[in-house]
Amino acid sequence: MSEIQNSNTNSTQQQQQQQQQSYSDSKINSAESERLYLEMKEAWL
Fold this sequence. Notes:
By secondary structure, the chain is mainly α. It has one domain. It is built from 2 helices and no strands. The radius of gyration is 12 Å and the shape is rod-shaped.
């Protein structure tokens, strides 16, 4: 689980460094995060 927390921390740092990142890029990152979350959730079932 620590890997998930590390990845969340890294993405937060990237967002702070790239505050001018486009909205569409943020949407893509959110969709990718949700997809990975669903894959992990299925793996636990």
